[in-house]
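Hi P.,

Sorry for the delay on this. The queue was packed all week, but I finally got your sequence through. Input first:
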Amino acid sequence: MFVLNGKPLALGRAFTTEDGRQFPANWLRLATPEERAAVGITEEPDTTPNYDQRFYWGVDNPKDHAQLVEQWIGTTKQTAGSLLAQYDWYVVRQAETGKAVPQEVLDYRSAVRVVSDNREVLINGTTDTDQLYAVITGDFNGLFPWPRGPFEPPVEEPTSGSDTLPIDFATTGAVITDTSLFGGSGEDTITFE
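Then the structure:
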């Protein structure tokens, strides 16, 4: 945090010194430490307490727990609904034509409902805003992640230090050109023969 004469200065905001000198909004970002010091600006650690505005009105001022529970239950239901909606056409097709819904889709839809139900139980089980905050921001302790779609490829995490690309494609005669494959500023090209 930048301070001038005991008052904090906001980045991206023009300011005027006590002697009337005016500085544009981008000056703090562009000025060197020496230029800021010459004006009398110091840099101090920001000691303003942080709080999550989704759960608190201010520091140590929680929002109404019951309203937050209702809100997060709604968010959970909305997420589950959007995940299920992607595969609703299978159910409609079955109702109209009698063609069966693939088992992978049925399993996925069931898993979405289970995750949604379990998340709702955890949300409803909180007794105050602090507990609800811990449950939501702790991502439900990793216990109930939303399932991947039935036909989505599995996500493979590249191993540390590995030169393999997380790309699945036919390697005969393929050429990949990208500027972000290996970092740096140049264009990267990989040719497979």
